[in-house]
Amino acid sequence: MMRRLLYPEQRAPHASTVEAFSWLLLLEGGAIVLAPQAVATLLNLPNFSASAAVYFRLVGLLISGLGLLYTVSGRLNAQGFVFASLLDRPLVPPVMLVPLGHGAKNGVVT
Question: 4 pLDDT band (50/70/90 cuts)?
Answer without folding.
Answer: low
